[in-house]
Amino acid sequence: DQQVKQNSPSLSVQEGRISILNCDYTNSMFDYFLWYKKYPAEGPTFLISISSIKDKNEDGRFTVFLNKSAKHLSLHIVPSQPGDSAVYFCAASSYSGGAQKLVFGQGTRLTINP
Amino acid sequence: AAGVIQSPRHLIKEKRETATLKCYPIPRHDTVYWYQQGPGQDPQFLISFYEKMQSDKGSIPDRFSAQQFSDYHSELNMSSLELGDSALYFCASSQTGGLENIQYFGAGTRLSVL
Questions:
Q1: Residues 6+ apart with CB under 8 A from A51
Q2: Could you read off the pLDDT of A7-17 as tens digits, one per residue?
Q3: Most buried among A3, A30, A79, B98, by the most CB within 10 A?
């Protein structure tokens, strides 16, 4: 039962253009959504998050949009740069037993072409 | 800035052996999480500790145990290793009290069971 889904295993975008990564979830109890970026042989690196009570959060080139009615969120990267090439994980957070547990999507491999 | 430290980075064991993975959280972080990422899969939550007490449990086999010590570092003990335990094991830490409880990940320990 995959509660967080990233249906695109890979995405290829030209440098300078916009990258849009999508994520769907099923559990309406999630209270925070986070995006992590992962390079090979490294741990996931936190990028940006959004509370379930908001619909947009922006940080530099990165913007996350949340559509609660559709249970869908997206990460926009503009302009895309070669260093953005990595695997991006969408994660959803729920509070349980005193700690926030993360549920991850399967990841999307983003490739930025020069 | 100090990050989450995991050791060892790589570990090779044989079936039925035991393994101990260590995690040193970011200073002043009081919560530690363990995740397992199999080949081509998303990270799966195993267990978490808040203030040295187990706070949540995920899909952790009974052969595995973990604890958090007085200095907040954590150890994941794995016994009777099986081939299917070969995976990347990530530790993450967070500081409760913040709205988002963002989890920061270590670089991971790659366990290979032969």
A1: A31, A32, A57, B99, B100
A2: 999 999 999 99
A3: A30
Summary mean pLDDT of chain B: 92
Tell me whether residues B99 and A51 touch, CB distance under 8 A: yes
Residue B88 has pLDDT above 90, yes or no: yes
Q: Which residue of chain A has the CA closest to B95?
A: A99
Please, are residues B67 and B19 in contact by the beta-carbon 8 Å criterion?
no
Please give the CATH number for the structural domain made up of B5-113. Answer: 2.60.40.10
Residues A98-108: pLDDT tens digits? 667 889 999 99
- What number does CATH give the domain A4-113? 2.60.40.10
Domain spans in chain A, listed from the N-terminal domain onward: 4-113
CB contact under 8 A, A44 and B90: yes
